[in-house]
Design a protein that fits this description.
474 residues; alpha/beta; Dna Ligase, domain 1; D-amino Acid Aminotransferase, Chain A, domain 1; 3 domains; nine-stranded mixed beta sheet; five-stranded parallel beta sheet; 34% helix
Length: 474
């Protein structure tokens, strides 16, 4: 398997080419929601379902004439206008498949809505004739859509499901001998007592504290990570798992079949402390693994809260890529085709100074960090120097056109693709449909500049403007 290192300044057009596809004959779908009424959907049951209807994928869609196509459910109209006017995207490449501001399930499954629209719209069927569908979560709807347009999928639906599984990552790490934290994989909560007994014996001499993580197979942004003390009461441990798992699984499945992983908390090991957590991103085709770089993951209590690229990211990205490379090659050999991010935990031995990494989490799909990475690559291409950035979320009140309000917060720092600038604050997700709290809506932005100090200054000023706006309205 060939391994190469490339960037994605042209977003989905580059990704299509790395997949050995013609961009103009490729349509990309991305949604963290899927139709659970299908067989593929049932296998991917997630704790965090959410009702927001947006698409992150627009932030790295094609801005070329006749570029790769992007299917999205809902787009806030003023955000779409801003993207088009600033040549961030070419609006002709965007296919909106949902009904404006409708939020009924399974509306936020873009696969479901594309399939529905292709069935109803003969012109769209003709437009997509012979296209390849690339989806973060392949489904039966995608399979049916491919038949309707005489197109194809990168891989079979049922074959894709396992590649997002933490259980599968742990299992094949033994087969291909790539690095993951010390731990065990098993099925059924009824078997946890024996697994914990073995881990207590195997880790007794390497642990400073007795902190471990129990991980459910399928989750979103860390919602299925459960922190435990391995010496606590067994019933209490089981109750913690059942409390989370019962939101999506039956009691029988939880106790007898549910895939689980228990791994050491690396920071609880003797002489070994986490120094960085980097999501390494790649594209896997039939003959090549293309490693794109990565972004550092910001987490709180095991849950993802944002992405950054700092001097520290740049210092350790080479190590992270080498650690992830072995897992990417294993995934390629196991048959995965598409975009993938693997989170790599970088640790340092406090006695010897040795630095190494562990593969801890697979996301066989576009991830939240992809928006930041793509826009950093675009800015680096036009500025010809290293660019830094962050991507975080805010709750915002919106008046008038949503983008007018966001622009008033960003002021002169609003991102514009002009005069080799390609820096500032870029709204990448704006949901003005579903309130998340107290008349506020969900906003995610990317902030990029040529130093991380500038990034922080711009973003902090942006947050102050949001808070000031809220105070004025109270």
């Amino acid at each position: 398997m060939k391994v190469q290192y490339k960037k994605i300044p042209n977003g989905l057009d580059d990704i299509a080419e790395y997949l050995n596809l013609e961009p103009a004959k490729t349509i990309f779908l991305h949604s963290t929601s899927f139709n659970e009424n299908t067989e593929a959907g049932k296998k991917r049951a997630q704790i965090n379902k959410g009702r927001m209807i947006y698409s992150e994928i627009m932030a790295y869609s094609s801005n070329k004439e006749n570029g790769a196509k992007t299917a999205v459910s809902y787009i806030e109209k003023s955000l779409l206008e801003y993207y088009n006017e600033n040549n961030i995207i070419n609006i002709e490449n965007i296919i909106q498949v949902g009904e404006d501001k409708k939020i009924d399930y399974p509306y936020n499954s873009v696969s479901y809505m594309l399939n529905k629209k292709v069935k109803e719209d003969e012109n769209l069927r003709e437009k997509l004739e012979g296209f390849t569908i690339v989806s973060s979560y392949l489904s039966q709807e995608d399979e049916e859509t491919a038949k309707l347009i005489n197109g194809k999928l990168l891989m079979k639906v049922d074959e894709q499901v396992k590649f997002n599984s933490k259980y599968f990552l742990k299992k094949i790490s033994e087969k291909y001998r790539f690095s993951t934290p010390k731990g065990k994989y098993f099925c059924g909560l009824n078997n946890i007592e024996n697994v914990i007994k073995i881990l207590r014996e195997e880790t007794n001499n390497i642990m400073e504290d007795n902190i471990f993580w129990i991980k459910l197979e399928s989750q979103l942004s860390g919602t299925g990570n459960i922190k435990i003390d391995i010496n606590e009461d067994l019933q209490e441990i089981k109750q913690k798992v059942e409390k989370i798992a019962s939101k999506i699984y039956t009691s029988q499945y939880i106790n007898e079949e549910m895939p689980l992983i228990i791994e050491v908390d690396v920071n609880s090991m003797k002489n070994e402390k986490e120094i960085e957590n980097i999501g390494v991103e790649a594209v896997i085709s039939s003959d090549t693994v293309t490693i794109l770089g990565g972004v550092s993951q910001e987490t709180k209590n095991g849950s993802y809260i944002g992405s950054v690229v700092t001097d520290k990211t740049r210092k350790y990205i080479g190590i992270a890529q080498e650690v992830a490379k072995e897992a990417f090659i294993a995934y390629a050999k196991e048959g995965y085709r598409g975009f993938i991010t693997i989170d790599v935990l970088i640790v340092q031995n406090s006695e010897t100074g040795e630095i190494k990494g562990y593969n801890i989490d697979p996301n066989a799909r576009f991830s939240a960090g992809t928006m930041l990475l793509k826009n950093i690559h675009t800015s680096e291409y036009y500025n010809n120097k290293p660019i830094y950035g962050l991507s975080f979320s805010n709750a915002v009140r919106l008046d008038k056109k949503a983008m007018e309000t966001i622009s008033s917060f960003a002021k002169n720092n609003l991102y514009k693709m002009e005069k080799s600038n390609y820096k500032g604050i870029l709204p990448v997700v704006l949901n003005d449909v579903t309130q998340i709290v107290d008349d506020k809506y969900y906003l995610k932005t990317v902030t990029i500049e040529d130093s991380y100090e500038k990034v922080q200054e711009i973003y902090n000023n942006f947050k102050k403007e949001i808070r000031s706006y809220d105070s004025d309205r109270i």
